[in-house]
């Protein structure tokens, strides 16, 4: 079944930051009350000291229009190679402040914005997490896989890793 470790305060923000910035790409979901849920991959620019997750986005993207209608979002992170997973529900806010755009800008973002960080279409999205859950391994992927294989061979209960809430 695994261990449950609910994290709070600095440990929660540290875990959120480590997972989100390491995995880097998430499925960014909007229109959570509609089926199908609108989903697209997005790259995390930063997780700040308060646990807020920042993205660069086009002002004219569907996601920005959807956030203006309903600011509730879900971010789903998955790193199969190390068996790390993160689910974040939160509220998104769109900013056009040039100083924040400058602070978050990376050269790869130019692929979406012809005029670079000064492109009038650039915006940033801040997601303030309200409900966060993580799944992780205790010993790394290889040891965990060996433990699962041993449990399958012996009929004993497997090691389910570590999971819990992150309260930021």
Number of strands: 10
Give the averaged pLDDT, no decimals. Answer: 86
Percent strand: 35-45%
CATH architectural designation:
Roll
Major sheet attributes: 10 strands, mixed
| Secondary structure tally, helices | 4
Please indicate the count of domains: 1
CATH superfamily: Electron Transport, Fmn-binding Protein, Chain A
Tell me, briefly, the overall form. globular
Q: According to CATH, what is the class?
A: Mainly Beta
pLDDT under 50 segments (min length 5)?
Answer: 141-152
Report helical residue fraction: 25-40%
The computed structural class is alpha+beta
**Rg, alpha carbons:** 18 Å
- For this structure, the CATH topology is Pnp Oxidase, Chain A
Order of helices and strands: EEHEEEEHEEHEHE
Gap between N and C termini, in Å?
25 Å
Pfam families: Pyrid_ox_like
Domain General stress protein FMN-binding split barrel: 12-158
Protein name: General stress protein 26
Organism: Flavobacterium noncentrifugens
Structure in words:
This protein is α+β, with helices and mostly antiparallel strands and 168 residues long. The protein has one domain (3-167): Electron Transport, Fmn-binding Protein, Chain A (Pnp Oxidase, Chain A, Roll). Helix content is 26%, strand content 39%. Strands 1, 2, 3, 4, 5, 6, 7, 8, 9 and 10 form a ten-stranded mixed sheet that branches. A hairpin with a 4-residue loop joins strand 7 (72-79) and strand 8. Residues 141-152 have low confidence and may be disordered. Residues 12-158 form the General stress protein FMN-binding split barrel domain. This is General stress protein 26. InterPro entries: Split_barrel_FMN-bd (IPR012349), Stress-Dev_Protein (IPR052917), YdaG_split_barrel_FMN-bd (IPR038725).
């Amino acid at each position: 079944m695994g261990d449950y470790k609910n994290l709070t305060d600095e440990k929660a923000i540290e875990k959120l930051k480590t997972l989100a910035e390491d995995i880097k790409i998430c499925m960014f979901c909007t229109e959570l009350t509609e089926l199908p849920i609108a989903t697209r991959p997005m790259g995390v620019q930063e997780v700040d000291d308060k646990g807020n997750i920042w993205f660069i986005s086009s002002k004219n993207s569907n996601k920005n229009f959807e956030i203006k209608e309903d600011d509730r979002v879900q971010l789903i992170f998955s790193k199969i190679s190390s068996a790390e997973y993160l689910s974040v529900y939160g509220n998104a806010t769109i900013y056009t402040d040039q100083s924040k755009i400058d602070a978050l800008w990376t050269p790869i973002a130019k692929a979406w914005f012809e005029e670079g960080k000064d492109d009038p279409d650039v915006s940033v999205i801040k997601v303030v997490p309200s409900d966060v859950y993580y799944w992780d391994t205790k010993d790394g992927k290889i040891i965990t896989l060996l433990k699962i294989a041993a449990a399958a061979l012996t009929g004993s209960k497997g090691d389910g890793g570590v999971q819990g809430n992150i309260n930021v």
